Amino acid sequence: MVELLAPAGNLEKLIFALKYGADAVYAGGPQFGLRAFAGNFSLDELQRGISFAHQHGRRVYITINIMPHNEDLQGLPEYIEEVARIGADAIILSDPAVLVTAKAVAPQLELHLSTQANAVNWQSVKFWHEQGLARVILARELSLGEIREIHERVPGVNIEMFVHGAMCISYSGRCLLSNFMVGRDANKGECAHPCRYKYALVEEKRPGQYFPIEEDARGAYIMNSKDLSLYPHLKDVLATGINGLKIEGRMKSVHYVATVTRAYRLALDAIGRGEEPPEHLHRELFKVNHRDYTTGFALGKPTAEDHVYSGRNSHGEADFLGIVRGFDQEKGLLFEQRGHFRPGAAVEFIGPTAGPIAFEIPAIHSADTGEALAAARHAQQLVYIPYPSALQEYSIMRTQA
Questions:
Q1: CA within 20 to 30 Å of 356's CA: 23, 107, 153, 189, which one?
Q2: DSSP string computed for 220-261
Q3: pLDDT at 202
Q4: What residue ranges in 277-388 does DSSP mark as E strands?
Q5: Residues 232 and 373 placed together within one structural domain of the fold
Q6: Mean pLDDT, residues 221-249 taken together
């Protein structure tokens, strides 16, 4: 069975990813990862997350996938030993220095090759497998036909691919723009996302005169890729023989992680039963914040239509309002607020397998005092909402799309 991997930017997102159907999550610790600004885990938080995952029969992979310079190797052996000690199921690496260090200090640790290592052909995949890698995460710059050939040429190798999330305007995420422009090294986890900036042209002999770079009247976001989504082509993806499907987004919200993971989980389960995924599931991917979707390289080389020219910001059809934390027969749903709402609001609930369930909020009461409230507007405020029955644990409430 193919493994579904979801992003875990913090402990809460890890829990939601697993509750909403991920077989495994990938997360960054306090060092050596490529998401320095993603709210990475402390080692204590990682250990708690790993324990939670193992209690539910799931796996946790830790990213140690920077491109290290000499000074970055200091402390690496000790860090890998600690990651192994707290029970990580695998580490994701991209550099031979991390590979040889891990094999020396924690030979029991499973090793996965990061997409950063640019595996784009079957001989490369075979090479990395022979070095002791249990899994190769393929570069994004591959078609489904190429992935199928890799599987056929090296059938004993476990391979993984990205199926959903943001795309970098670089080769397999290896970008120099951030380093060059603002001194923040994307290959050490400090990307400033210059591919999302708005650019203008300056002629050499006319300093200070900025000329917009335009394609028709659409703007100047010349490197702003659309987001990857292969959901409509899941059957074709599975036909390649792939072993792991990966969702990008450790910096995304709880709403994003839960909703996207749920959509892919339920679709994969339906396909596994020989059924068509429910039609409403695809719509779920448009309710979270996203850029317009593209199939990337999967069905052919990207064109100008695979970029976003109108702006850098993402958009979604529904606003995340909060999380169901319990139920009382008399008071209703105990609810943790994450967005502004008031009585009369038209909302909907989704759970790991249930929903969306449309509902109009009749009233809101403080969980502390019991008083009726005109609105829930304080961050993580606990309130009761009258509701006839309990909902699945960790259910989410959002605006109706």
A1: 23
A2: S-TT-BPEEE-GGGHHHHHTTT-SEEEE--TTS-HHHHHHHH
A3: 73
A4: 293-294, 320-328, 332-337, 346-350, 357-360, 365-366, 382-385
A5: no
A6: 90
Per-residue tokens: 244: 């792991």
CATH number at residue 84: 3.20.20.380
User: Residues 150, 291: one domain?
Assistant: yes
What is residue 100's predicted lDDT score, i.e. its pLDDT?
Answer: 97
Q: Which of 250, 280, 306 is the last residue of a domain?
A: 306
Q: How many angstroms separate the CA atoms of 151 and 240, rounded?
A: 7
Give the contacts of 182 (CB within 8 A, at least 6 positions apart). 192, 194
379, 386 Cβ separation under 8 angstroms: no
Contact 192, 275 (CB under 8 A): no
282 and 372 together in one domain: no
Model confidence at 336: pLDDT above 80: yes
Chain centroid offset of residue 325 CA: 24
Q: What is the DSSP letter of 264?
A: H
Residue 311, pLDDT above cutoff 70: no
pLDDT tens digits, one per residue of 387-396: 999 999 999 9
Query: Among 313, 172, 308, 176, which Cα is nearest to 248's?
Result: 172
Higher pLDDT, 307 or 152: 152
Q: Are 346 and 358 in contact (CB under 8 A)?
A: yes
* Cβ neighbours for 139, distance < 8 A, ≥ 6 positions apart: 115, 118, 119, 120, 171, 172
* 49 and 87 belong to one structural domain: yes
Q: Is the pLDDT of residue 169 over 80?
A: no
Contact between residue 35 and residue 250 where contact means Cβ atoms under 8 Å apart: yes
Alpha helices by DSSP H, 74-206:
76-85, 96-105, 122-130, 144-153, 177-182
Please, is 334 exposed, middle or buried when counting C-beta atoms within 10 Å of its C-beta (0-12, 13-18, 19+)?
A: middle
Strands of 396-399's sheet in order across: 357-360, 346-350, 396-399, 320-328, 332-337, 382-385, 365-366
Per-residue pLDDT of 10-65, as tens digits, reads 999 999 999 999 999 999 988 776 655 555 789 999 999 999 999 999 999 999 98
- Closest-CA residue to 343 (of 362, 325, 327, 359): 362
